[in-house]
Structures are given as structure tokens and as C-alpha cells.
Design goal:
The chain is an alpha/beta fold. 46% of the residues lie in helices and 15% in strands. The structure holds nicotinamide-adenine-dinucleotide. Nicotinamide-adenine-dinucleotide binds next to helix 1, strand 2, helix 4 and helix 6.
Length: 245
């Protein structure tokens, strides 16, 4: 029970990394509130673990986030996993797509943190974990122009936040996964011209010859959420099976 008595909000919790992390946190004794835009899948999560509370919140919507956060008194940890993968280079990314990625990948992190941080500051303790990506300031990846750009911004976000609030009991760290076998990854594979080849190509570029599983990312999240990592802040934690070696 590494997270007993911790109140944790997990975003993008209906599937993939967010879901695996919400379940791991709850199994370790945390009180978890799972947020997502997908009500149906949130209901499935509640069925898997009835202790997890769920709420439909669009993390890019100011009034949604504000009205949810206004109801929260006691929060220890925010685990923020909302993100969107745009496929293409700069010429494939028009203004609308540019702002969509900025909105989903950066603005959501700002909105959630901006509304929850004051509650953590009041307690003089808080912990924010942001899911970034190895495809960011760490590694250039083909056809991930706006994705890599926005994830690099999140790495800056984590450093800035950690620096500003280190003396006020707030920690902020990022998790930078490589390629993780999640429903959205599967969707990207299926949308390609040749899904079988796309899957093989993804796996071929993995140094360990396999993709990560969401539970493996959740294990790192568990360490960062627990008091075992109390001396850790401002860090960018790669978990990429050696992809960036
Ligand atoms: N899968 C990978 O290979 C991989 C690699 C590196 C980083 N990441 C990052 O991990 C995070 C999670 O990715 P994933 O592949 O596990 O998830 P996913 O794409 O499978 O699921 C994302 C979830 O987020 C929800 N969501 C989308 N927009 C939302 C919003 N505005 N408000 C609330 N919920 C919203 C969706 O409904 C969905 O349940 C993302 O930030 C992604 O960029 C993923």
C-alpha cells in the first residue's frame, strides 16, 4: 500500500496509460478520481475497480475544469496523461491542427495544474506528474512535428513548475515513454495504409524488439507518486526500452 491516504486525480484515465495508472494507484491504496471525455469507457473502469470515482471532464475546457476543481478540497497528486498524436511534418500541420495539439497537449496541462496547484500550496505539499514523450526535446521522430514540439514544451513546463515551487513543498516530474501498446497506438497502426507493415516497423525500431505495456509506465508513475521519490523533482524520466540510446 504505497499510496495509502493519497488523493489522486488521473486524467485520460479511460484507456491506455491513464487507465493502467489509475488502477495501479487504486490498488496501492489511493483515493483515485479518474477523468476522461469518454463516459462509456470510464464506466468500464468503475466496473473493474468500484473504489475509483469517475467524472467526465474535458481537460481542454476551462469551465469544465474549473467546475470540477472547485469541488476538490483535498488533493495530493495530479497525474496528467491527456495527449494527442498528430501524424506528419510541418507541411502536414495546418494552423487548425497546430492549435489542436497545443490545446490538447499543453493547454490541458496548464488548465489542470493552474486550478489544482493552489489547493496543494495551501497544504504545503503536492505532486504533479505529467506524461510527456521521448519524442520531444529528447528525440526527433519522423512525422511527429507538432507532437514532438508540444511534448518538448511539456518538458519545459515541468522544469519551470518544479523550479518555481520547489521551496513550497511541490514536486513536478515528467514521464517520457517510448512506444506503448495502447488503444490509440493500435488505432494509428490500423489507420495506416498497411497496418501489418506499420506494426512491424514500429516494433523494428524498438531496441528491445518490443513495445512497452501501459502497466510498465504505471510502475514508474507509482514510484513518482509515492513518498519514496520525495527528493525527486524537475526530472524527465525516460522509459523507452533503449529507443533513445
Ligand atoms: N502510446 C504511446 O506510445 C505513447 C508514447 C509516448 C507518450 N504517450 C503519451 O501518453 C499519454 C496517454 O497516451 P495513451 O496512448 O495511453 O492514451 P490513449 O490515446 O489510448 O487514450 C487517451 C485517453 O485520453 C482521453 N482524452 C482525450 N482528450 C481528452 C481531453 N481533452 N480531456 C480528457 N480526456 C481526454 C481519451 O478519451 C482517451 O481515453 C498521452 O499524453 C500520449 O501522448 C503515449
Amino acid at each position: 500500500m504505497r499510496l495509502e491516504n493519497k488523493n489522486i486525480i488521473v486524467t485520460a484515465a479511460a484507456q491506455g496509460i491513464g487507465k493502467a495508472t489509475a488502477l495501479t494507484f487504486a490498488n496501492e491504496g489511493a483515493e483515485v478520481i479518474a477523468l476522461d471525455v469518454n463516459k462509456e469507457k470510464l464506466n468500464e473502469l468503475s466496473k473493474e475497480n468500484s473504489k475509483i470515482k469517475t467524472e467526465v471532464v474535458d481537460a481542454t475546457n476551462k469551465s469544465d475544469v474549473e467546475s470540477f476543481c472547485n469541488k476538490i478540497d483535498n488533493i495530493d497528486i495530479l497525474f496528467h496523461a491527456v495527449g494527442f498524436v498528430h501524424h506528419g511534418n510541418i507541411m502536414d500541420c495546418d494552423t487548425e491542427e497546430f492549435y489542436r495539439s497545443v490545446n490538447v497537449n499543453i493547454y490541458s496541462a496548464y488548465l489542470m495544474t493552474h486550478n489544482l496547484l493552489p489547493k496543494m500550496l495551501k497544504k504545503k505539499k503536492g505532486n504533479i506528474i505529467i506524461v510527456s514523450s521521448a519524442a520531444s526535446s529528447v528525440k526527433g521522430v519522423q512525422n511527429r512535428f507538432i507532437y514532438g514540439t508540444t511534448k518538448a514544451a511539456l518538458n519545459g513546463f515541468v522544469k519551470a513548475l518544479a523550479t518555481d515551487h520547489v521551496s513550497q513543498g511541490i514536486r513536478c516530474n515528467a514521464i517520457l515513454p517510448g512506444t506503448v501498446e495502447t488503444p490509440s497506438w493500435e488505432g494509428r497502426v490500423q489507420m495506416s495504409e498497411n497496418p501489418k507493415k506499420a506494426r512491424e516497423d514500429f516494433i523494428a525500431r524498438q531496441a528491445m524488439g518490443r513495445l512497452a505495456q501501459p502497466n510498465e509506465i504505471a510502475s514508474m508513475a507509482l514510484y513518482l507518486a509515492s513518498d519514496e521519490s520525495d527528493f525527486v523533482t524537475g526530472t524527465l524520466n525516460l522509459i523507452d526500452g533503449g529507443w533513445t540510446l
